[in-house]
Amino acid sequence: MSYTIALNFEDGVTRFIGCKAGETVLDAAYRQKVNLPMDCSDGVCGTCKGHCEQGEFDMGDEYLDDALSDEEAAEGQVLTCQMVPSSDCVIQVPVASSLCKTQVGKIDGTLAVVEQLSEDSIELAVDLDEGAELAFLPGQYIHIDVPGSDQHRSYSFSSKPGEQRATFLIRNIPNGLMSGYLTQLAKVGDRLSLTGPLGSFYLREITRPVLMLAGGTGLAPFLSMLEQLAQKQEEEQGSGQPMHLIYGVNKDHHLVKVDALDVFAERLPTFTYSTVVVDEASKHPRKGYVTHHMDDEVLHGGDIDVYLCGPPPMVDAVLKHFDKEGIVPQSFHYEKFTPNQAPGEVS
């Protein structure tokens, strides 16, 4: 038996390793040429300390309190030299990937589909090369090299991990480098190079109600999250916690992938969603901003995990709204992106 361990480094790089039954994370990492920090490997120094965000494991009792206190262990801190996983795990490693002699992965693929969903949204599908492995956490993003240039653009996956076809929702930016390629030059069969995965915005284990807030093509990571959650539901591993998505756009025809959300609502009994349109001339039943439609029913008195992905003004507006209303979620994960840049600030 082997478990998949996601190592998230502080520079945003994620590296996935396999860990054999009974093997420590440190040994598994070294076996796969990832040099995690360590001095003693005996649970004495604490150099290999990290934080396990999700997963089951055994730490044993062969380490010193000076290396890992009871309080730290209760908060999810681990010593990778002693940690023996009993499930897939996600571990935060508090150093840059370069210091561990590892680097972000690279993979190639073939352009399979380019479809303009609306005036401001494009869907891109890339068939990864046969035998290529692209593991990621739902919500993360990847760099895609723009053909004919020496630049890349960064996009969140809308597909779930493990698929041979990776999909993305891309904002159509007038005179944008990637937008120009996709709308004017791209053709099925073009070769694309991808680098990643990256980012700290990803789905955590669900233990309480969830509120998802998406702006425009910020819907992409939620499609990836929902796809994985739906699969778990079908495998009878669903959490049973209520999940609500508020999806905001500027104009009626900017609403895309609503049919996919309808399917998720059928596959996930506890999932609901609502759409919001900013345009005052719209006849949509819910107008304004997402902050206008966060009622008590979806806020659960603050006993929620909030995931937010959208342009900076939307992210800032939600942060200010929470502060003004005195809403303090149990956890709050957000990502804001700007045109022609990688997804930006993550918390």
UniProtKB/TrEMBL annotation:
Question: Known Gene3D superfamilies for this protein?
Answer: 3.10.20.30, Nucleotide-binding domain of ferredoxin-NADP reductase (FNR) module, Translation factors
Query: This chain belongs to which protein, by name?
Result: Benzoate/toluate 1,2-dioxygenase reductase subunit
- Name of a matching Pfam family: NAD_binding_1
Listed CDD domains: BenDO_FAD_NAD, fer2
InterPro entries linked to this entry: 2Fe-2S_ferredoxin-like_sf, 2Fe-2S_ferredoxin-type, 2Fe2S_fd_BS, 4Fe4S_Fe-S-bd, BenC-like_FAD_NAD-bd, Beta-grasp_dom_sf, Cbr1-like_FAD-bd_dom, FAD-bd_FR_type
What are its cofactors? [2Fe-2S] cluster
Provide this UniProt record's keywords sorted from A to Z.
Dioxygenase, Oxidoreductase
Q: Where is the 2Fe-2S ferredoxin-type domain?
A: 3-97
Claim: Protein biosynthesis is one of the keywords in the record: no
Single Gene Ontology MF annotation: 2 iron, 2 sulfur cluster binding
In its UniProt entry, the species of origin is given as Onishia taeanensis
Q: Where is the 4Fe-4S ferredoxin-type domain?
A: 30-62
Taxonomic lineage of the native organism: Bacteria, Pseudomonadati, Pseudomonadota, Gammaproteobacteria, Oceanospirillales
- Residue ranges of every copy of the FAD-binding FR-type domain listed in the record: 104-204
